[in-house]
Each structure stands twice: as C-alpha cells, then as structure tokens.
Amino acid sequence: MYAPGRLATSLRRNRNGEFGSVPAYEAAAEISERLGDVIGSNGPDAIGLFMGTQHNFATLTGPMVRGWFRGLGSHKLFSTMTIDQSAKWIVRERMGQYLGGRQKFHDSDVWILAGTNPLVSVNGGDGDGALMANPSASLRAARDRGLELIVIDPRKTETASRADLHLQTRPGFDAVIFAGILNVILTEELHDREFCDRYVDGLDELANAVSGVTPDLVERVCDVPSEDLITAARMFGRASSGMVSTGTGVCMGPDSNVAEHLAACLNVVCGRFAREGDSVEDRSALSRSVAPRAEVVPPGRSWESGFHSRVGGVGTLNGQLPSGILADEILQPGVDQVRALLVSGGNPASALPDKDKTLRALRSLDLLVCVDTHMSETAQLADYVIAPTTMYERADHTAAMEATFTTPYAQHTLPLVDPPPGVVEDWQFWFRLATEMHIDVKFAGRVLDPRVTPTSDELLAMLAERGRAPLSDVVAADGGLRPPPRTSTVLPPSPDAAENRLQLFPQGVAHELEVALSRSDTIVDEFLLRLVVRRERELMNSLGRGIPGLARRTFNPAFVHPADLRQLGISEDDTVIIRSRHGSIRAVAVPDETVRRGIVSMTHCYGSLDPDADPHDHGSNVAALLTCDTNVQTINHMPTMTAVPVTIDAVNDI
Ligand SMILES: Nc1nc2c(c(=O)[nH]1)N[C@H]1C(S)=C(S)[C@@H](COP(=O)(O)OP(=O)(O)OC[C@H]3O[C@@H](n4cnc5c(=O)[nH]c(N)nc54)[C@H](O)[C@@H]3O)O[C@H]1N2
Ligand SMILES: Nc1nc2c(c(=O)[nH]1)N[C@H]1C(S)=C(S)[C@@H](COP(=O)(O)OP(=O)(O)OC[C@H]3O[C@@H](n4cnc5c(=O)[nH]c(N)nc54)[C@H](O)[C@@H]3O)O[C@H]1N2
Ligand SMILES: [Mo]
After folding, report:
1. CA 53 / ligand 1 centre spacing (Å)
2. Does residue 108's CB lie within 6 angstroms of at least one atom of ligand 1?
3. Cα 198 to the chain's mean position, in Å?
4. Does the 11-84+302-476 domain belong in CATH 3.40.50.740?
5. CATH for the 102-273+501-512 domain, from 3.40.228.10, 3.20.190.10, 3.90.1170.40, 3.60.15.10
6. Are 117 and 157 a contacting pair, CB within 8 Å?
7. Contact (Cβ atoms closer than 8 angstroms) between residue 255 and residue 515
8. pLDDT category, 524, cuts 50, 70, 90?
9. Which atom of ligand 1 lies nearest, measured to the CA of 160?
10. Number of the ligand 1 atom closest to the C-alpha atom of 643
11. pLDDT digits (tens, 9 = 90+) for 144-190
12. What's the average model confidence in pLDDT over 618-635?
C-alpha cells in the first residue's frame, strides 16, 4: 500500500511525453472522447480490453469492466487466462463437463500434482480449496491420514519434497507421461467401468491411441524409471478416490492441449466424481447455491462458431480471443485492427511472450489506458494511467471466492484506511467511462441507471442477493460468518441431458497426440538446456517487485544444476547470456540442486524497459526468449512457455 511508487493520482501523458496528474473523471471524459473517435472511424472492434491478474481481486472490478465491455460491442477481449491455463477451457469445450462435482483433496486417498507447486503458488488443485488455503497444513493433514501424493515436476520443488513418489521428468513431455499412465490403467483394467459405461464415449479409441506408450517408452522419452511410472499408475488406479490436477508446468508446455486432455481423461476413466444420490458439501454462503446433477454438459467447441479474428482465423474461447494474437491484432493492418487498448489490473508489457513484438505493438497504439496502482512497464507506455484504491482502502466481500473455500464461510470487510485523495475504486472509473460513452452497464442481472452513481455497498449487495446468508448478517459478524455446514444430494440427470456423454477422443486429439509422440525424437538438439517456468513466493507476477525487502533478491536468477554450471564453466552470480531460437537475454546464474540436470528454471515478469539495464539490478524478462509465431497450440494459440530449448554462456565467453 505504501510501497515506493504507489500512485496517489491518475496521470496523463502530455505532448512532450511527460506524465502530469489528472483527476480520474476528467481522464474518463477525455478517454471517452478518444474512444468515440476510434469507433467513429473503425468501429468498436478497434478497441481492445486486456484483463490482468489483479483485475480479479476486487469483487466489483470484473463485473463492472465486463459490463462496460459488453455494452461497447467489441469482440477484442483478452486476458491472462489464455497465456496461463486455457487448455483447461479447451478440455471442457471438447470433452464436455460432468456436473455432479469433483472429488475433494481433503478426503481423497491419492492425488497427482503435475506441473504445479502449491506450496509456493497457493494454487494447483484446479480450484480445490485445500490446496489454496494454507496448502502446507492441508498437505500435512492429508498425508497424516494416509493420502498418497505423486508429483510430476522436473524440479524437486517444495511440494515434491513432500511427495510419496516424485516423477522428476524431462520437461515438455507431460502428454507422454499421461498417455503412459492411462495405458497402464486401461491395460490392467484399473479404471471405473461402471462410470465409463454410463457417461463416456471414445474409451476404446483412447485405449488404442495410448496402447503404444509403454512404460519403457516413457522412460526413454521422459527419463522417468519405468517402474516408477507403473507404480504411479497403480497407486492412482487402485485408490478409490483422488484426482490429478495440473498447473502452468503442463499448460505452458509444447503439447499443452493434449497433455491437459489426457490428464482430464485419467480423472474420467477412474470416475473420480460424485454420483447420483451422493451427498456433497454445499460451500455457498453469499453466492447462489447450484445443485449438483449427475449429468454431462455436451462439448461446445465455441471456437468453431461466432467471431473469428482476421489474425489466423482464430476463434473465441469463453468469449475471449487468445492473448497470443494480441500483438498481431494491434500490428496487422485491417478494418478492425485494434487501435486503442485498455488494461485492467494487468501488465502485458512485462507478462506477454515475445517482449519485443509486444512492446512494438503497445507503442504503436493510438491510445493505451492502464488502470494500475503502480507505474508498471505497461503504465510507463500508456497515455493515461488511472490510479485505483488497493485492497485495504475499499469495502469488499468474499462471494466470488467461495468455491475455493474448504468450509462455507463469508466475510465482508470495510475499508480499513483512507485512500490517497486522488484515487478512485477500479469499478468507479469503468462506470464513469460507461456513462461518458452512453453505454448501459448490465451488472448482476440488471441494467444500472447511468445517471445515478451507485455506492460500493449497493453493488456488493447486488452480487450477494442470491446467497443463503443475508449480507447484513455477514457485515455484522466480526471476523466473518460460518453458515452451518450443508450438504446437497446429487440429482439425477434432467431428461433432456440423460444421453449426453463425455467425449474421451474428440476430433483434434488424435493428431495432437501424434505430434506429441513424434516430439520425443527431438530430446537432443543443438540447444543443451530447456527453460522452465517457476514462481517466487514473495511476489505475484510483477506485483511486489519494487517493494524493498520483500523479495530475497533484486533479480530473478537463472537456476541451473551446479553440475551443469561447472560443466559450462559458469560460477555463481556470473552474468550469462541465454539464447533461444527466438531471442536472447542476459541473466544471473545461480546454482540450484533442486532442478534436474539440463534445465534452466526462471520466473517471469522481471526486467525493465531499458535494454541495457544490468540483470543484477532488475532481473531478466524471459518473455524475450518466447514467441507467439511458432510452436503455438491450435485453437487457443497458446505459445510454448516452458521446456523451451535454450543455450547458456558466460558473458566473458562472447
Ligand atoms: N507466490 C506466488 N504465487 C502465485 C503467483 C506468483 O507469481 N507468486 N502467480 C499466480 C499465478 S498468475 C498462477 S497462474 C499460479 C500458477 O501456479 P502453479 O502452476 O502452481 O505455478 P508454479 O509454482 O510456477 O509451478 C509450476 C511448476 O511446473 C514445473 N514445470 C515446469 N515445466 C514443466 C513441465 O514441462 N512439466 C511438468 N510436469 N512440470 C513443469 C515447475 O518446475 C514448477 O514447479 O500461481 C499463482 N500464485
Ligand atoms: N515467461 C512467462 N511468462 C508468463 C508466465 C510464466 O510463467 N512465464 N505466467 C503468465 C501468467 S500465468 C500470468 S497470469 C501473467 C500475469 O500477467 P499480468 O496479470 O498482466 O501481470 P501482473 O504482474 O499480475 O499484473 C498485475 C498488475 O496489476 C497491478 N495492480 C495491483 N493491484 C491492483 C488493483 O487493485 N487494481 C488495479 N487496477 N491494478 C492493480 C499491479 O501493479 C500490476 O501491474 O503472466 C504470464 N507470463
Ligand atoms: Mo496466471
């Protein structure tokens, strides 16, 4: 809150390129006028919106921003989800979704965590609260009562060191590992035949497609001992409950869509879901309770219909275009070329792959508006920076987070401190912008009156009006309210959905699996190492980097196994050059026993806009090594961000 650089006022860039302070609502009026010009000459599709991570942490921001955007009528909606884990959206859109509810970590017998490190990221259970709220304690409690934990990760992470079995795989081959595990489970008939008979199509095709992926093949490709793979498959298949959940290590890999699909197939063939008549916990409090149903929502394949971008003919997922085409949407000429971009709680200049192209695109815009608490790299390039409140300066409640709690719980918090006089709440800027543009905002199922500015409390109440706990009770409860535990019974399928089935081998998967398996021929190439993703405990992406004393270092090290460093003649703290097929960065080498040999493990969102900055001072932006032009997934245009082939050299060798 009081970090150096916290913006106390909104800013406007003048003709000389310098920022001066501007009242947020004056800025909204000017931005409205400039957006009006863009719409006048190119239509609403020339306006883009990018929703970043911090867009999601004030309950009112998301619904208000999307309300404005819907009213605007543009299709150019982007978010970090499509450079994060959008493969999960694709699974749902290709496989369909079972609505009876997933099994839960806290009472499962086994769990596989692949490419995720919840002890650092507080993430990783695919939304299971136990891995998001105090994951360390949850993990300890689960293991004490007998849960067997399997971790698939090329690094001996904090989480992997607590595992019963760690498959320390070569990065980039998760599709092969999951195919191998499925093969063992289906061959040994450890799957849930009853669930498959009732709810699944394509089981034989899937079994056939993975039948060649033997434990020996997995050992050769992934460098995971074949006995360990068989053990993992049996541990998972023989247990009566427990799921596999994945993180960025799987979703950012070179075959992310099929890898994620096969991981989901494991959960389905083993039937790891609640059945009709089962009683499941209902965790709703302020949010609406939705009754679980033992039925399948059929695949939607949303990208096949509706809007398609002129860039590569790419379609939409969850109403969004992939962020992997954002730079091209801005740079490539065309009638609906994006000319103005608004950024809500994100830092695309730092976070998007292909740093140079992203910067070129952002710099070429007619208008860039950034709502941010700090002068992020993106804000530094903007025409307007709108300064919002931070979390202790605004009222909020927990309705949007309930699905990730381990018990029903609701809290409402008042602002604890006064904000600087020059800031507004995020939502207030967007509502004002909508009013200035004469856009009616749909919010919580109604159209807001543009002439009357609501209060935060009124809006928070609208978002909680369908909960079972009255908001007034929650406001009055000091420290939050725990509604009594409640269970609901999984209902039978509705008649019109009774025949729907999950598609285990939908169109597209066969080809992707073939590609993933053929990639195993390229384990050895001229690039000795593979760059892999990781996260840092003290920071949230680029957030917190400027706060002295928070992170342990001023830079993000290139973590390499000490034996690899010795072999390369590189010492701790040396400046090195890391090169990929696409680009190069300077970085600081640090030995790390926990990484597998042959990898460089680095976190993202470091570095500065100054190309000559010393990596010891600002760190290095790995986005410069990545590209959205080659090795992207079909459908979501997801770039390869982990298991990227690289070389590393000491700077004095050059
Ligand atoms: N402290 C902290 N928490 C955060 C964030 C943060 O920046 N800092 N960011 C937040 C965000 S935006 C997100 S999306 C989540 C992400 O949450 P997670 O997905 O849990 O992210 P990581 O902790 O980076 O875990 C990724 C793991 O994948 C492994 N890995 C790398 N490549 C491969 C591979 O090819 N195969 C396999 N199997 N594993 C691989 C890495 O070694 C690493 O341990 O975290 C959120 N939480
Ligand atoms: N190479 C590589 N690149 C990656 C990743 C990777 O693993 N490797 N991970 C990717 C992932 S998973 C993600 S999610 C993205 C993250 O991409 P972004 O979401 O674009 O990046 P953040 O740094 O999280 O941006 C959050 C911004 O919100 C601001 N902020 C903080 N509080 C508030 C607030 O209350 N209101 C507003 N309006 N702003 C606020 C912060 O100052 C910061 O500038 O990065 C992606 N990029
Ligand atoms: Mo993310």
Report:
1. 14
2. no
3. 32
4. yes
5. 3.40.228.10
6. yes
7. yes
8. low
9. 44
10. 35
11. 999 999 999 999 999 999 999 999 999 999 999 999 999 999 999 99
12. 96
